[in-house]
Amino acid sequence: MQPNVKNNGAAIRSARVLIVDEDFTTRKLIRTLLLSLGVTDVHDAGDGDSGLASVAAFDPDVVILDWQMAGMHGAEFVRRVRSPDTSASSNVPIVMLTGHGEQSRVIEAMRLGVHEFLVKPVSGEALRQRLASVLRHPRPTGKRGAHGPQVDRPVANMVVVD
Fold first, then answer.
1. Which residues lie closer than 8 Å to 151 by C-beta, 6 or more apart?
2. Is the pTM of this model over 0.90?
3. Distances (CA, A) of 93 to 2, 24, 60, 146
4. How big is the CA angle at 14 (ends 46 and 134), to the nearest 5 degrees?
5. Is residue 145 part of a domain?
6. Helices (runs of H) and strands (runs of E) counted in the chain
7. Is the peptide bond before 138 cis (omega within 30 degrees of 0)?
């Protein structure tokens, strides 16, 4: 086994992961996939407001976030987390989950500061790859400017997986 693969596994197993998705079945499925990868410190929230409170209380290493939720949708959640004025965890890596893989959504997610993007249904391997990527190579998430968030540089390696 190559050392970086071994280190990726250790980083994934020790990660604190927060799942924010309004669908209980999806949260349960993602939790099951995470457990199969060896992640044991998993928390979840069923809506954006609870997710924001969990980010503050739990201080996760990674947030797995649904794009389309009632109330506060994923884009608004990301805006609030990325705001250094309102979030102490403004640099937490976010993996966006969605049932829609349109290029416009990927571009908007990147612009807001999402690190990775997965299309539902998610496989364990795709989830493992995204976790390894965000834990191994955290990227700048952006700065708030007069015209909204601006990404310092393009978010590399963002792949949509069907």
1. 110, 111, 113, 140, 141, 142
2. no
3. 25, 22, 9, 23
4. 70
5. no
6. 6, 7
7. no
Q: How far apart are the C-alpha atoms of 52 and 55, rounded to whole Å?
A: 5
Lowest mean pLDDT among 41-45, 115-119, 125-129: 115-119
Q: What is the CATH number of the domain that holds 128?
A: 3.40.50.2300
Domain count along the chain: 1
Q: Is residue 116 part of a domain?
A: yes
d(CA 66, CA 135): 19
Residue entry with tokens 């310092």? 152
**Cα angle 88, 80, 25; round to 5:** 100
Range of the domain at 124: 3-138
- Give the model confidence (pLDDT) of 17-38 as tens digits: 999 999 999 999 999 999 999 9
109 domain residue, yes or no: yes
Q: Which residue has the tokens 């015209």?
A: 147
| Residue 64 forms part of a structural domain | yes
What pLDDT shows up at residue 87? 66
- Secondary structure (3-state) at 3: helix
Which residues pair with residue 17 across a beta bridge? 42, 62
